[in-house]
Every structure is written in C-alpha cells, then in structure tokens.
C-alpha cells in the first residue's frame, strides 16, 4: 500500500504544482507524509459535509479542487468551520490535498472534463500556458474552445447544458438572443469572467462559465450588440462546472494505481456542495 | 421650464453627491448647464436600448443608477457602445446624470425601494452613514433590515420575492434549509456581498441581494451551518433589485416639480436591462 | 472621400500608437468611425479657440498634439471647457484625434520639425527607441541632436531661435555664458527637462526646449560651471517648439491623400495657443 | 472543570487581544472550544520539545508567548516542524493559545517580569499605550524603566543580569564603558532595538534587551560617546528575557482559578528553547 | 559673540522647523555647534558663487532659502558642485543653514516680502496653516492675497512687477487679456502652481508666481475664459520672487542681535543666482 | 605620488561598484579628486575612533567596509557623530571611500578572508553572481562554502573560530548538538541570516555568520532537528567576521601600488569597533 508522499507524487505529475497561479495555494494542507493510503476521495469543496463523507467512508486522502485556505491563516482553532475541518481530518488521520489552478491548466484539466460533458469536439485551450516546454502539443492552459456536436440555438444550448451538467437548483441562464445559432463554444470551469475578452478575440459564438455578475455580463452583451460580433453567455453553478473534473481525476489516479500495483480505492464525492438549495421562477 | 442646473440641484438634495463612495463616479456625465428640461427618464443602466427609449420619447434628461464610466476614460469615440451613448445623447441634446452610491445611502434610498416591494416593516440601515449630522434619525446608509409582514419559510420567501420584484429570466435562488422559518430580512440592492458579515452580526434570518458568487455564498452558508446562527441567502437579478428605485425616484422628483411649479414630465424606463434573457431548469 | 477610419489608419502609419509612452492617452477622442472626412485641421492644443476655428472652417477632423484628457475623466458635461469642447465637436460632427508621444518619437517627429526650423544638420535622436525593428536607420526617438549651420554665440543663438520659431510674447531665454560659442545643439519639443542628463552625456554645446523650471535649470548650469563641460540652455514657449510639427504633419497627410486619391483638404491652425499674452522687460 | 473558552476568556482579561500590534497573530491557534481543561503549561516557544513536554505531562492547554504562525500559512501538513506541532497537539487534544504583544503591553506584562528579576524599582512603561481608558494609572505599554536597587558599574550590572536571568549558553554582553555607573535601567523583553531612541530620550543609564545587531548597537554607542549622553547597552538571550513572564503568567492564572473555583493545575515549561547551545570565549 | 547654536535658535523662532512640509529638508546642513558667529550672509541658493562671496566676505554662517540636498545624499565628495560647496564651507569654517517651506509659511514669510515689494495692502495667507495655536491672528501660511495700491491693467501690472522686483534677464510674462483690470492680487514666492485652484476659489483678479509650465497655465487660462471668472497669471523668475525675503530676514536677525546684545554683522548676497542670463524678444 | 582618482580607479577594479546591491551606498563619501594620496588606512567602520587613528597617522585616504550613510542624509552638521566624522575628514584633508556589498561579492571578497582565517579549503560562493561574464571561473558571489582542514565537533569548531578570528568580548556562540561532527562549513561575513535557506540547500554541516537573532536561529535549528538535515549555526561578532578583509584588501592595494610604481603606504586599523565591550558568563 502506498504512503501519502507516493500518492502526492503521482498527483503532482498530473497537475504540476509549479503551473499554479502565483496567488494560489495548492498542495497538501494536512496529513502525515508516511501515512499509508488505501482509499482516496475526490470532491470540489473541502467543506464539513464532504469531510463527514470521508470519515464515514474510511478515506485516507481527500483531494479537493478548492483550497481550504486560499489566503494564509494564523489559526486552525475549531471555532470556525475551516478549523473544524482541520481538526476532524487530523483526528481521523485523513490527509487533504488541493489541485486548483494547476488542475485548471493541465492536460486534461478541469475545462476538458466540462467540455467533454457538453460533447465539444476538437477543443484547444483559451489561454495556452506559455512557455511550456513540457507541453509540445500546446494543450495545457485555461479554458477550452471547440465545436458543438451540432449547431443549436442559444436557448437549446442552455437546455443542453442543463441536461448534461450535474444538476443544481439554480439551473442554467443565458444572455443574448435566444434564437441565435451557436456553432462554437468556449467553456471555463469556475469563475471565468477574466477570460471574456479572450473569448471575444477568439470569435467563439458562446461562452459557458460560472459566477458572472451584472456588470461584466452587461458590458460584454452590450459590446456584442454594438459591434454585431462577440459571444452569447451561459452561466451555470460554479460547482456544476467543476464537478466533472472529479470523475476525470479519479479515472487518472485509478490508472496510475493499476500501473504502480497499488491497492488503492478511488471514489468521487456524491455531495452537492453548491450552496443554492432552491429556486423560484418569475412569471414574465 | 427649469434648466438642467435647476433639476440637478434638486436631485442633489435627494442624493447628496458628497455621500457617495470615494471610488464612485456620480454626477452629470454630459449635457449643457443651461438647456431647458421638460422631460426626465429614470433607468438603471445607461445602455443603448435606454438611450433609444429616451430619444424616441423626446427626453431632455436621463438619470441612471449606474455610471457610464465608473473608471475614467480618455476617449468617447463612437467605436464602443459607451462612446455611441455619448454621441447619441449629445446629438439629441439629452443630458445624462448618475446617482449611484449616493442613492444607495440616501433616505429613502435604493434599498428602501427594494424593502418596500417586499413589504418589509420597521426597517433601518444595515450600515448607517457615520457621522451624518444631516440625518438625525439615522436612516441614511447602505442596505435595509426589517421584519417580514408574516413569517414564512425560505422557500416561500423565494417565491414571494419572485412575485414582487420586476420579472427577469433568471428568477430568484436561495441558499440554506428551504424549510427554515424567516422572520427578519436584510436587503441590499445590487452587489451586496461586502455586507455579509454585517448581516450576520445583526442577526437577520435571511439576506436578499444580487451577484453572489460561489465562494462568498459557500463560506457564509457553511459558517451558518457550523454555528447554527446566521442568515439564509437569496439572490435576484441585480437589475431587479435596483429598478424599484426608479419608481421611487420618479415620485420624489415629481413632488419637487409640483412644489417648484415646474412643468416637468417624469417617466420610468420600461426596458429590462438585465443581460440574462433565458433560463433552463435542471431536473434533480 | 475617405471616412474617419481611413484617415486614422493613415495617421497611425505615421505615428504608430504603440510607440506612445505608457502614461500617454493617444488616439481618437471623439467621432463616428464611418463619417466622411473632407477637411482636416492640425493644431497643438484642443482648446476652444481652435475648436471655433474648426467649426468656422467646416473641418471634419481635428488632429492635435496634446491630449484633451491625459488622465481619464468620468464626465464630459459642458460645465468645463473640456466638456464644452466635446459637446461642440460632436454637435458639429467633428472628430478629434491625438498624436502625442507617438509623434514625438516618430521619424520624422516633433523634434525634427523643430530642428528643421533652426537649420540643424545631420541630426539624430537624443533617446533612440530601443528595440525598434521597424526603424533600421535608428532615426526614431525623443529629441534631436545636430550641428548648427554656422557656429554662433549663445546670445546669437537665442536671437536666431527667436527669429525662426513661431512668435510668442515670452520670447526665448538662455542660461550660460552669453559669449560661449555653440556648434552643436540638442532640441526637444515641449517639456524636455527629463532629457537634461542625456544631453550632457552626448556632449551637446546647448539644449533648446520648453518649460524649464528654476531647480533643473540651476542644477544643470551649476554642474556645467563646476565641471567645465555641459550644455548651455535655451527655453522657448512650449507651443512655439511644437507648432512646427503641425506644418510637417499636414505635409505628410497631404502626400498620403494624393497617393490614395483622396479629395482631402489639409490645414494648419493659425491660433497661438501659448497662454502668455504679454511680457515686460526688466532693466538691469 | 472549565472548558477551553472559559480559560481563554480569563486569559483575555489579563492580555486583551485588541491591544496587540496590528501585524501580530495572537489568540487560539488550535483546540476545541468545548474541551475541558484541567492542566495548563506556559512556555516561550511553541516548538516540538515543548509539545513533547505537554504531551508527556497530560496538558490540555499550552500557552506560549511566540506565535506558531506569525505570518499566515495555507498548510499545516506534517512535513514541517510547525505542521508536526499542529498534528501532535490535535492528536493529543491539546489546545495552543498565544499571548504575544498583548502580553508585552499588559500590566503586569512581559517586561514587568523581567524588571522584577533584576530588582528594578518604581518602574513605568517605556512606551505607554495611548489612549488607554482601561489603564488610568498609565502602567500599560512596551518596556519598563526604573531604578536599580543600588548603583553599580556596567560590568557589575552584566554580572548581576547573568546571575538573575534564566541561564543560557551565550551569557550577557554589554556595550559602553565597563566602569560607567548605572543607576537607572530600561528593559524590554525580546527584540527591543526599535525602542533605542525612546530609551535615549528618557535618559536611562542603560538598556537591557535582546537580539541587538551590529549596526543599531554601534550607532547607539557612537551617539552616546559623541554626545556624552545616552544608554549603555546589555544584550541577553531573547528567551532569557521572556521566560520570567511564564512564571508571572502562571501565578496570575492560578489566582483566577482559585477565585473561579476551577480545579486547574498550572505549570511552567522547564525546557530552554534558546537555540544557542554552546559558547566559546575569546582571549584578548 | 554668539555661537552657532545661539543664532540657529534665534532663526528657529522666526521660522519654526516643525512648520516645514514633510518632504522638505530644512535646518543646519554643515557647521560646528560651538563655533562663534560674527558675520551672517542671506541668499536664495547655496551655489558656488554665493559660497565664494561668503568666503571672500569672512562670513561664519550662510543662510539660504533653498536646501543644498532636498533629497538625501550618501556622498559629499568634491566631484560634484554640491560636494564642492560642502568642502569649501567646512574648509573655511562656514556653517550652512536652510529655511525653506518653514520660511514660506512664517509671519512674516517669503510671500510677505514679495507682497511688500509690490505694494500689496491688507494681505492674508492663501493657504493658512491649520491648526496653528501659535498664530492666533491667522497670518501664517503659504502665499499672500491682498489689494493693489491702485487698480491697473494686467499689462500695467506686468510692468509694475518688472520695475519693483529684483531684475533678471527673463523679465515678467503675463497670461490673460492685457487690458483686464486687476484690483486684487495673489502672490506666492517660488513655484506656486499647486495653489492655482486655491487662488481661483478666493476670487483674486491675478496671481503672480514662478515656474508656471504650459499645461497648468493653459488649463487655468482656458478655465478662466470658459467661466468668465478666475485669475490672470504673471510669472517672474523664481529667484526674483524669493530674493526680497533675504532683506526681510536680514532685518529680522539684525533686530534680534540688537536685543540680545550680539556683535553680529548681517548681510544680503548681491549675486543673481537666477540661471537665465540673456533673453531674446520675438517680433509678432 | 598618485592622486585620489588614481587610487579609487584601482580599488574599483578590485571591487567593481556596479556589482553592489541596489540598496547599497558604495563609492567615495568625501575628498578632493585631485588630492595626492600617500597613505591609506583600511577599517571596518567609519567611526570617530578610526578617524582619530587616521588623523594621528597622517592618512590621506580611509577605506571602510561599512557606509557612513547607507540611507541618504540632508545634513552633515557636526552635531551628530557622522557629521563630526565628515567635518574631521574634510578638515584634515582625508578622503573616505566605501567598498561594501561589492567587496562582499568580489573574488577574493570579504568571505574569502573569513574562510582563509578558518582554514577552509576548496571553497566556492554560496550565492554566485549571475550572470557575470567577468567571472568565468564562477568565484564571485556572496558567502563561501568549503571543507574544514579536519573534521571536528561543533563545540571544537566554536573554539577553533574563537582562536582564529580577531578577538571580541562576546566570543562565539553555536546552536545545535555540540557533539555533532562538522566537515563542511559555510561562512558569510557580516549579517548572513538571509542565506540560511541557501546554506541548507547546499548541505553544509555548519554555517558561521553574525547578527543571528532568535527567530531565524530558532526556526533554522528546529527545521534541522525535524528533518535530521541542515546546518548547525555559529555566530561571531559582525566586526570579527569582516576585519580579516582589511588585511586582504591592504595586501591587494600594496601589490597594485608596487606594479604602478606608486609610493603608497597601506595600513590596517587596529581599533576594535565591535560595540560590545564586556561579557558575563551564565552558570548552568
């Protein structure tokens, strides 16, 4: 049975930590380097419900996409939910490891899993990693851009996304002419508003991401209307755009375990950690 | 008939510009000080569809909540939609005036109009303006906090908000236990995530605002779950939370015009400038 | 007849906007991209007297050296002279375009025109643009440095400059020994105090620029006196050092119009926009 | 038996956290709020040898003067000694609490304990806390300043300090004329170089602190020699100047436990955590 | 005969160093505190010609308005003119003392001497020092504002200033309508462009200062033309606006010497240290 | 006999000023460029006792390792010891020149002299200068790392250093297991705490430097204990680690003088300028 540093080394080949953003906090958050690891759980958020699932399932290593502490902390006291997470994990001997923007930029990465759910073909990164000698085919980078399996209207694409992504209460919203035909789609798992100009420059018909607020969405939509060029927008739950990566990652680790002769059980969390629990439709 | 500076002076008594945030850009964006003003239009966003409505309606002064240029510009050339807005307004002799965070903090202000739509009683500011000698009753400030007309579950409150607010495609979403009973509600028109800790400290049962992204919503919800105290969350379209202010402001200006003996026609824009045009429900 | 974007494209080949300083604000300030352009006026300053000249002359495009808004603005309301300029231009369908530090650094540029007026031969930039693959002869850059047609005393050089530059009330002042012989001269149109050390290093006998204040002029003169090496200084009106560029630029655009078969009338403004209107001599 | 929050509340009355410096990280680092506390250990440094002592002694709460994480961390993984400290403490159910600059500034505080060891009389703060309505007698603040029990030479004072402070390998060094008579002494537990100018202004004959480097010590000594006024300097091990506070703090908590009827055992760590383990004398 | 510290103490009562700007460098630049002082020389600039005058005149203390090192230096080696100044002064036992923005803000201060030359009556500061308990009559502060002895045109005022101020080659220039009548005048010795808005707000008819560059002068003049309100501008040599202070200061120190029974000779430098040595008129 | 600029040119070939750190202040602090130089004195600190030695010895040029003004000054008045140093030097015609971080990084540099005293063989820089085309053998850089002549325990190494370095009152202290065997030693003259991580990465058994404070020494020692790898620490007086450079530098300049045929006497200061004058041992 491998120990923690063995499994972390394997994960680091999939998502090299040095490719993370400067402001990011990836890597191992807690755990003993020499502890044996027999069961691994993948999840989007390191929140108490996921930790409970890990404890109940006898998990040794929890791997999440979101950092527990993105900004540094000077305390892990159990009077906050994050401190409680640390205490529970250490009490039960469970390590926590984070692959965040390094997983976003990997090949395959977070947006590949999202693109795969939507059936996108011939995709390439929105923002390639430059320079990246370890990536001769140029497939590393943020976001993905490719062709839909068939052209469809924006309204139909919203329904398509709602059917293919993990279900959440808030559904999928779209901005732009509902009857516009969409052939090429850009996607970015998580909060992708910083890539709006890049998507426009690449000429995508539509862009699906999460956490778009009023001002970026309004400015992008008005610019598209003013110039007659630019993407329609789709916005799904942040969690729904990133959870597909958990399945993908679990498959990658399972394959490595097989190659390495490790007796490792790899699972994906079933908890929906999108905070929005209910939704009310408005009559228009 | 009043001239532009007369009407602006009146608006400045309602929403004193010196109460705006330091980073904000309120006041008159274009227009001739001495131009006569016979017709005024209120809207949330200074976008082309609203300008078309103003031109078509023979409006002399457009008053919006959002600034056209929140950050300074060195060009108003008509090759962007904002420059096109400036050219159209000047061509048609229409002035543009902005009341943004000064309207947020006024008494009554943006969140009063929102609270009124939801039937909130006995409300007071979430963040009072301090020190404010011009406000002896302490009613100026950001956000509002008060009691619902009757206690209701969080799910029922989401339906209530969806029924009372101006309709948009995205509807209203809520975070927290749908069956939780809500008696007191905090509201903040527009993007209110910066007030989350304040709402928690005040002990509100729920908080309705706009533009809540995954991480603030998740952290607030987990903290509520961890401690057993803290607000449920509701999120509506940014535009829907601020449009009620237009009606309120139009009423205030109409009253001033009557007192001043001005022959002034005051209107509220009917254009929905929320960018989200369609929504797909997910089956769970 | 060309439209605005045609003419701007031509100007951008003369003064590529990407060669401007980072802090500068060059490009089109107002105007419709598709408006036909039949008459162009060049001037140093985008001030009301120049705009009046443009309106009276039926001009379609005003090109100035100085930006209207060097720092960004959030308002163009007509209660300031700059806002009035914007309103007048848009009302009369006149576009405004700025070529500032990109014109300073071009070949030929602002200082070439100044050097030409003074009869400077064999000149080269004071501060070459590096790296500039588009400039194999190395003639792009700030300022110019060359030989006077004949050696002359500093006092005579001041008279020479006063005779050759566009006349302004303040005349030309000089620092250093009036009887010193000057053979080589450095020039920089506009405020050139930042190049004083560069001029010293190049070994020029004198340096003509504008806007020299007491401390830089005193320190440079004392350093020259202390070491026995370094330039004498000459200071003319800022406007007088930059207006020669207008003639040069008008000639360049006229040539392009001829090549392109455009029916374009190109003029140079006759208004002196140096603010200093009168001067009193002191008896010593 | 009290729980953790009871004991922390008591400690916060002794060393109010809001009096700590802005850059400091005081408070509870790990532990369960509701855990019963029967045994408390005070120490200067939260290092592994002290944690071993706490584990071996069945301690429930370790209180240290130095923070474990002065700057924020995004990981507590056990591959560093600090992460190992966190894992050991949580594994053994031991809470860690820090009182740093709030203990420095308290009445009595860290420098009171140091002053007491040296027999200093009638002492007052070097830098009083201003404004401090909770301290009408003005005894809160950094450092202490008072009279030695009897005047002595600087050399004798160094021997006196060496005899009275907890023993460390490096001993006590002094700067200034060894025969100078010292009547008044300023002290500051820990690294006190920032108070050198304050000590000079107060007119103390000598100043004892820790971690004085060459340049501050040299500049202060030369200034004293140049002006004939100013303090001699004494430098002891950082740990030796702060460990006396542990005894003082233990006494304070024991008194509170007695008043509160708590069955609490309070201990002081016996480990010398000064890193310097040996010293070689130089022959001169 | 007083020693240096006696004379400096007297000067500090006239121009308290703590009233200087934060960025300024006032006080004693070189000299021995105990050196006897029998002869004092006042000048505007600490330049070599003034030092030669001091050496030739057997001066013990040179007091200048401008700092030798406004920004800190790490060398006074004699390979620059400033280092040469330091070497000459120390070699000849001459102290150097600077009263800069503390003299600007004093009562009487630099602008009082300038106002006196121009015959200004009933003057008060442009920018009062606030709060200044040591100045109950409110006469301390930057710049002065008062009435001309008789109203005169701007052109006549320029001639008046040219006749009354110390003569320099560059003369006096003015911006605005030469025939405009001026009744009230604001003045600021030295570079006064930062006070332009203050002068406008106070309603002065004209403002005389030094070192006005094109952009501030142009913007101020255009704003005056646009609104029909605001000051005409006059610009004299920086040195000419500050040299009158030397006479005033010499008189103040002479009076103190008489009161103190000091045998002190006080002189004013006769060197013109304005760098501009010649001027050429332009024909228009 | 050479003049000052001749000798400085020679020193600049030994310690090129452009290799100094950005924040450093190296070069000539005072002196006349053309003054003849017959006698040179090397010392660590430019303090009054050293200046007295220079005056008494008829020295023309004092070369020190430490800057007199590391941060810029606006005054050299003789009311501080630094101003007194400047006055004394100029009065007696003595120049002062500083070689600081340029001497640290030279080949041979400050740490070479220190390594030589300790008998270190086959040494190389801790932090090589990169890129350094003038150093093909890669010997320039901060610190040195090499083998001890024979392995010894840490306690024996402390005694060895105490015997070989210039004697100071404080002696040498060491952190780590006194019985640990040390084969390889890293050294850095002066305050070397910033190189601790570099020393660890290079795998040195011990590191000797100066001015190590509690927190860096404690964290480095705990990290060594936690991982079982990393250096023991030794700390000597800052002065004692840098004075060996004076002998080395004197030898270098003597050789240059011989080659150049200069009649130059080169000395090394005998004053101990370490501020610590006495030390008291603690009994344990």
What does this protein look like?
The structure is a homohexamer of 284-residue chains. Chain A has helices at 4-14, 48-56, 81-91, 101-104, 110-117, 154-164, 196-202, 214-227, 238-260, and strands at residues 27-30, 39-43, 61-64, 95-98, 121-128, 141-153, 172-175, 181-191, 206-210, 232-236, 265-268, 276-280. Chain A is an alpha/beta fold and 284 residues long. Chain A folds into two domains: 4-102 and 242-268, Udp-n-acetylmuramoylalanyl-d-glutamate--2,6- Diaminopimelate Ligase, Chain: A, domain 1 (3-Layer(aba) Sandwich), CATH 3.40.1390; 105-236, NIF3 (NGG1p interacting factor 3)-like (Udp-n-acetylmuramoylalanyl-d-glutamate--2,6- Diaminopimelate Ligase, Chain: A, domain 1), CATH 3.40.1390.30. In chain A, the strands form two sheets. The first copy, chain A, has a six-stranded mixed sheet with strand order 5-6-8-9-10-7, sandwiched between helices. Chain A has a five-stranded mixed sheet with strand order 1-4-3-2-11, sandwiched between helices. In chain A, helix 5 (110-117) crosses helix 9. Chain A is globular and about 60 Å long. Chains in contact: A-B, A-D, B-C, C-E, D-F, E-F. The interface between A and B is large, with 59 and 59 residues. Chains A, B, C, D, E, F: A divalent metal cation binds at residues 65-66, 104, 238, 242.
């Amino acid at each position: 049975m491998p120990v923690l540093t063995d499994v972390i080394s394997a994960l680091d080949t999939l998502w090299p930590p040095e490719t993370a953003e400067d402001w990011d906090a990836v890597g191992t958050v807690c755990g003993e380097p020499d502890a044996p690891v027999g069961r691994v759980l993948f999840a989007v958020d390191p929140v108490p419900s996921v930790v409970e699932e890990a404890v109940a399932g006898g998990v040794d290593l929890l791997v999440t996409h979101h950092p527990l502490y993105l900004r540094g902390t000077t305390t892990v006291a159990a009077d906050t939910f994050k401190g409680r997470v640390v205490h529970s994990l250490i009490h039960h001997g469970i390590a926590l490891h984070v692959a965040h923007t390094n997983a976003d930029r990997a090949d395959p990465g977070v947006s590949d899993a999202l693109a795969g759910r939507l059936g996108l073909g011939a995709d390439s990164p929105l923002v390639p990693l430059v320079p990246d000698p370890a990536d001769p085919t140029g497939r590393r980078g943020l976001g993905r851009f490719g062709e839909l399996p068939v052209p469809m209207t924006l309204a139909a694409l919203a329904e398509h996304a709602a059917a293919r992504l993990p279900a959440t209460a808030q559904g999928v919203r779209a901005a732009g002419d509902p009857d516009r035909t969409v052939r090429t789609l850009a996607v970015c798992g998580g909060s992708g508003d910083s890539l709006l100009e890049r998507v426009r420059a690449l000429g995508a018909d539509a862009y699906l991401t999460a956490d778009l607020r009023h001002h970026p969405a309004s400015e992008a939509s008005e610019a598209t209307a003013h110039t007659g060029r630019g993407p329609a927008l789709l916005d799904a739950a942040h969690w729904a755009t990133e959870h597909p990566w958990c399945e993908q990652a679990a498959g990658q680790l399972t394959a490595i375990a097989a190659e390495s002769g490790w007796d490792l059980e790899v699972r994906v969390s079933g908890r929906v950690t999108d905070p929005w629990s209910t939704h009310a439709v408005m009559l228009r």
